[in-house]
Amino acid sequence: MKRFLLVSKYAFYPPHWKAFVEICGSYNVEGSIISESPPTLPDVHKQLGWIGPEEAKKEACSPQIFHVPEVGRRKQKAWFKKTLERINPDSIWIQQEPTDALTLSTLKYFRNNDCVNIVCSVCENIFKDGSWKKKFECRRLWPRLNGLLATAQTSIDGVREAGMPKTVPARTLVAGMEGPPESVSKLQIPVDLEHKRFVVGFAGRICEEKGWKVLLHALANLHDHCCVVLAGSGPQDQLLTDWIREKKLHDRVVPLGLLPKDKLWQFYHSVDCLVLPSLTLPRWKEQFGGVLADAMAMGVPIVGSDSGSIPEVVGPAGLIVPEGDVQALAAAIRRMDQEPELHRKFSQAGRRRFLEEFSIAAYAKKIATSLNLPHRATKSVAA
Fold first, then answer.
1. Domain boundaries, the chain
2. Domain 198-357 adopts which CATH fold?
3. Closest CA to 296 of 227, 347, 368, 220
4. Distance CA 29, CA 52 (A)
5. CATH topology for 2-176+359-370?
6. Going by C-beta distance under 8 Å and a sequence separation of 6 or more, which residues neighbour residue 353?
7. pLDDT in tens, 270-298
8. Whole-model pTM above 0.85?
9. In the 8-state DSSP scheme, what is residue 208?
C-alpha cells in the first residue's frame, strides 16, 4: 500500500481534512499528517470550524498524526528528518504556499530523492519580496516539485514571476468547499418582501478590497424593489453603518454581521443573486472567493468583478464586470432581475460547476490525480 503524506498547518481545516479523508478512503494509500499548531484564521474561515486531533483519529482511515514541536530550529530540523524517515512517504501533498517554511523544509529533505512525488498548493497571487537568502532558497528547492495545485491561473502567474520554474507543471481550480446540508430553510431577512423584492446578497469581509461600496453605489442606479443584504464583518463595519444612516438606506440595505455556517447556507437560500465586487489593491487581489463556491452549491447566480481569480472561478455560473465599474455592476444586477431565463441558466450551471470543480470529491480527485495515486474500487467516504 502506498504511503500518502499531507504536510500542512491547515490540515485540520475542514475542506482540506475532508479531502484527505476522501483520498485515504478512495485510493489505495495509508495516510499520515505533519502539522503545526493551528494558525489564527480570519473570521470568515473560523465559521467552518476546526477538526480536533482526537476527532481526527476516530476516522476509519486512522491516520498517523505528527505535530511539529515548538523547539529551536536545530532540534526542529532533527525532528523533521526523523519523522519523514519514519513515515517514508511515496507521495506528498503540501497544503502550504511554495514560500512557506514547511514547504521548504520538506523539499530540502527530498532534494536528492526524486522517487517521492511532491505537489504543493498555490493560493497567493502576489508574492512579496523576501530577503535574498529566502529567494535563493526558493529557487534552489522549487525545481524539486513535481506539480503545483493552484486555485487559479493568477496564482500560477504570480509564483512564476517569483521564480517558480516553468518545468514544474501546474493545475488550476484545485480548491474544495463543503456543500450544503440536504435541507436548508430560508433565513428571516428583516426587509419587506411583500412586493416581490429582488434580494442581492453580499458575503465576505466588510473592507475596502471586497468592494461593498461599489455595490451600494450600484444600488442607487437600480429600481427601489432591489435591496442588498450583507453577511460579514470587518474593519469598515462602522463606515457601513454610517453610510446606511446618511443615505437613508435602512429599507434597502441590511447588514447581518458575521453568520455561522448553518445560517450562511440559509442566507444563500434567501437571496436572488450573489455579488462579489472585489477590488485589486497594490498588494492584494482576489485569490479564490470561497463564497463563490458556496453560491454555486446553492444554485445562486453570481455577479463578480474581474479582480484576480473571480472570472476563472465563476466560469459559466454568472456575469463578470470590470472592477470598480458602478454602471456595469448595476446593469448586470438588472439583467439578473429582469431576465428569468438567464437567471435559471446560471443557477443550473452553478450547481453543475460546484459538483464538477469544487466539491470535496472533485477536490480530492484532482489532488490524487496529480500524485498518480492508485484508485481503490470503493465507495467515496466524504460528502
1. 2-176+359-370, 198-357
2. Rossmann fold (3.40.50)
3. 347
4. 22
5. Rossmann fold (3.40.50)
6. 296, 315, 316, 317
7. 999 999 999 999 999 999 999 999 999 99
8. yes
9. G
